[in-house]
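In response to reviewer comment 3 from the previous cycle, which asked for concrete evidence that the modeling workflow produces usable outputs, we include below a single protein chain processed end to end. The sequence was submitted unchanged, and the resulting structure tokens are shown without manual editing.
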Amino acid sequence: MAKSLKLDSDLWKRVEDYAAGAGYSSPQEFVEHLIERELSRLEQAEAAQEAERRLRGLGYLE
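The workflow returned the following structure tokens.
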């Protein structure tokens, strides 16, 4: 299911410029890639925090 997102016109212009310069097929592809990359980074940080919490709970970390 496709959803839409409204962006400020100045921001959209920057997205278009960077997408074209980086070789993306469209600004949408560029934005999707950025969102996926950031979500992955956040998920990895959460996983690391969870692992640390578990190690602390087991007494391996102080």
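Residues 27-57 form the longest helix (31 residues). We consider this sufficient to address the reviewer's concern, and the full set will be provided in the supplementary archive.
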